[in-house]
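Sharing in case it's useful to others searching the archive later.

Someone asked me privately for the predicted structure of MORC2 protein, so I'm posting the question and my answer publicly. Question first, with the sequence:
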Amino acid sequence: ERREDLRGGFMLCFLDDGTGMDSNEAASVIQFGKSAKRSPESTQIGQYGNGLKSGSMRIGKDFILFTRKDNTMTCLLLSRTFHEEEGIDEVIVPLPTWNARSCEPVTDNMEKFAIETELIYKYSPFKSEREVMDQFNKIRGEKGTCAGWFRSRVRYLGFGWDSPGRLVTCSGTLVIIFNLKLMDNGEPELDVTSDPQDIQMAETPREGTKPERRSFRAYAAVLYIDPRMRIFINGHKVQTKRLSCCLYKPRMYKYTSNRFKTRAEQEVKKAEHVARIAEEKAREAESKARALELRLGGDLTRESRVTLRQVQNLAITMRQEADVKKRIKDAKQRALKEPKELNFIFGVNIEQRELDGMFIYNCSRLIKMYEKVGPQLEGGMACGGVVGVVDVPYLVLEPTHNKQDFADAKEYRHLLKAMGEHLAQYWKDVAIAQRGIIKFWDEFGYLSANWNQPPSSELRYKRRRAMEIPTTIQCDVCLKWRTLPFQLSSVEKNYPDSWVCSMNPDPEQDRCEAAEQKQKVPLGTLKKDLKSHEEKQKQLTEKIRQQQEKLEALQKTTPIRSQADLKKLPLEVTTRPSREHTRTQRPRSPPLPDAIKNAPSRPPGSSPPPKSCSQLKKSSSDRPNSSSPKLASVLFKEEASTSRTHHHTVTAGKSNSTLKTLAKPGTSMKSLSGLQSPKSPRETPNPKAAKVPAVKKSASGRCSQ
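And my answer, the predicted structure tokens:
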């Protein structure tokens, strides 16, 4: 309804022709966490009423509720403007009630009633009692009066209006949201002017945006998996859809799993807690009954017998309640072990192939849409255009309070993975890829290479698509779904909003008394690939090869942080000093004699005359004796950690123990020098060349001479 004096320039009105609420039920709406629908077996959509509070506060700053039930009329105002201007921290909600016939206040405290009505007149768009009563009169349900009202005055969202010319009971609820949220440019977030029959998200481009994310009419059409209500937007009925009836070659797959336990475990814990409390109360009542019986003893007066009987009856009642709670607990514990079964329905969207993905409902209410799974995540043409539908009960997955996601992300990912596996099986079963994907889409009028382009509007392609998907429409009176037989004349036909069963050309389904026909969906089976022995062996060999490559790469890059790490490495592995956690270097060994130290680096032509064995002994005996024990211990450790290369070096000098002792330091110093210069091009020595060092070979040769 246009109201230029309010922020946003209009009010958003929701009218429901249901049973309405009395004053107590209206009061429970604003109590966070209160619910009358907590049964896990419940198929009702809402649970806590958070949608009215948090949802309305997201759209606007204030909302006012009018509801009628039986002989009462109740008004409720939840206003952030009121709390901000009055500087109030706690939540105060005016909740006056009137008699529906006399319009007299229904209250025991007239002073409180007067304060509540004054707050409503001050902070709501309705400034007098007459204007408030006009809102209650809109719930009267007279079709003629209300039709003229919303056509001329209101931006209206009606849920469940009745058929033309018929009176409904004077019950229902009207919610009005005002002072709407604005964007940075000062315009409201909701666009009610671009399309008079729709409410759209402002400044949302058509290109690249799914229609359900931009248009409220498109979203309301698929909001329920099996719609059983009428929805009107601005006086125009929404043509709701049953997605499973709008798909080409639908197929159902039954899926069972033991993985969905979080929600069931929560219910078991609650049942155990309730059963334990009931058991304690029953024992207490039985104990009181026994104590009273012992205390009365032989007192057989009438009053005593009446008192005893009352206490005993109470104990019996408490025991019965405890037994019922225990049976419920046992049933939920058994249900926890039982696998949960879900029905996946897949089909091809030949009307708009770019709108594909999974539609996931919870208790028939849409939670997630256009979720890509399995082959669709690869971005190719495989499984393109396929839509999946599943209805998940509360016991399997619990949605978040805003109904836009699921609470348990881990189990939700498991559900998507399972749907991906069944989607791949469906793609094999329909055999579209075998016949040719491009050829398949060309048959239905998709002539462009651009995947997002709509199909051809030529009559022959429209007929081809209409032949594969029969028209399914809902009766405006009995709300039953009817499948119409194919007729060439109905290909481009637009059906009226008030379509009824008598308009059905099928003589067996042309009356509301006829039973609704169930959709016949073929049943598919997930076939797991049974790999042959050769394929398994090939996969195992490939996996072993990959692991070996990883191991080799890991060995080549193993950092050395201590002497113990060095001992664990083979000679072929490059030793690199660690850049992290550097430690103090150990003291180096004493310098080698000049004869051995300079031997590898001498040019072959300028080598001095070799020293004799006696000279080598003399040079070794000239070292300080104080360093001999320390050098011997170091050499002993190096000897224990060397490989076969060092062993050949040692055996080459067996003829002289002094030469053997001198050869070991040369080898160990060569290894340590490699550690100190890891960037050297010789970082990885050749194992064959390292077996017999040239220095030791020449030394042993001289001794033998």
